[in-house]
Amino acid sequence: MQPALTHLGIACALGTDAQAVLSRLVAGSTAGMIATDRYSPGRTLTVGPVQVELPSIAHAPPQLRSRNNQLLLQALLPLRSAIAKAKQRYGAGRIAVVLGTSTSGVAEAEAAYLGRGEDGSFPAAFDYRQMEVGNPSEFVATELGLSGPAMTISTACSSSAKALLTGRRLLRQGLCDAAIVGGADTLSRFTVSGFGALEAVSPERCNPMSKNRKGINIGEGAALFLMTAEGGPVRLRGGGSSVDAHHVSAPDPTGNGAEDAMRAALSDARLEPAAIDYVNLHGTATPHNDAMESKAVERVFGSGVSMSSTKPLTGHTLGAAGAIEAAFCWLLLGRENAAQRLPPHVYDGEFDPELPPLSLVKAEQRAERLSRIMSVSFGFFGNNAALILEAQP
User: Which ranges of the chain would DSSP assign to H, the alpha helix?
Assistant: First the structure.
């Protein structure tokens, strides 16, 4: 079964309206990226925040109030009507919630520690459960009155890509009739300083595949899909995952685990590499990730398939990246992109000569054919995932 992704909600540095996000995506807009020291006091860094006012979460139980869940609330807005119809049709117990995150409500914990009183007491609004990994799926299920399976996956940067694969598995096993799948992650000092400690953060906008690349920018956001076994504009044609366990934070320099995930996705979809029209790269702009990824995608696709990284437009949204970039693919495959424009690979144009040659998308480039897209996500501990999305006639 190849389930349909029928509806999408998104919030990221490119915006919160799907059509505006698509327009900025294919224009290669970096307007949402800002330089600030808000998350790195004393050091100005480029980050990708969601800059709109998010919906109030005051109605939720205290343990479910977090910016992470506010981002999910924003992404839920365009899905509510469709979910209500699915709930009426299938029942509250037959709709699953499967989300990915890496930080959950750690921003609230961070603020609570910074705001402790002289006696060490925490602010009244803080509840330690806000930062539990399972909190996002608990929030969405509670918000929508759902009683089906609800789980949160945390496999670093592949979390929400694996959430889509898990939602598909629940549908295939007959454990639900529909699923809300996606993920969210929130900017905080914790994540920015953590990647800073790894010497993986670039002060300027990230520069993937360039010989001058210096590291990542951190972003935030959320993306949610309604997934069903019935028809829709885009389906999840295939997916694959792997865990190479090479290192806690560094990717396997051979790229073998990443290659395994991509080949598993192609095999699952019963497709040859030439059937893929565009690849959304993980493209973090760290020296090690880009070196590994370029080797892996070149071995799978050669140098003829159009590719780009969208992280210079949004920052790396960590556990939400897989879902947000799958959302970009969903938008590219939709009717609103009738011109078949592709997201340009935004960098300084100085391709690293030590990397295998890749066909990076240029500004204003259009695809001759745009019906199948692969999106790849590679996380800490060698957690790799690849998704193939396909437009429906």
Answer: 18-27, 67-76, 80-90, 106-114, 135-144, 159-172, 189-197, 256-269, 287-301, 311-314, 321-333
pLDDT digit string, tens, across residues 8-23:
999 999 999 999 999 9
Q: What is the pLDDT of residues 148-205, one digit of tens each?
A: 999 999 999 999 999 999 999 999 999 999 999 999 999 999 999 999 888 899 999 9
- In the block, tokens 């509840």 appear at 127
- Check residue 37 and give its pLDDT: 96
Which pLDDT value is given to residue 248?
75
Q: What is the DSSP string of 118-130?
A: TTSPPPTT--GGG
CB 319 within 8 A of CB 185: yes
Q: pLDDT grade, residue 260 (50/70/90)?
A: very high
Note whether 203 and 214 are within 8 A (CB).
yes
CB 343 within 8 A of CB 332: yes
Q: What is the DSSP string of 4-67?
A: EEEEEEEEBTTBSSHHHHHHHHHHT--TT-EEESTTSTTS-EEEE---SPPPP-TTS-GGG-SH
Q: How far is it, in rounded angstroms, from Cα 312 to Cα 348?
A: 11
Phi, psi of 261 (to 5 degrees): -65, -45
Do 283 and 328 touch, CB atoms closer than 8 A?
no
Residues forming the active site: 157, 282, 316
Nearest to 219 by CA among 326, 106, 321, 317: 317
How far apart CA 82 and CA 192 sit, in angstroms, is 36
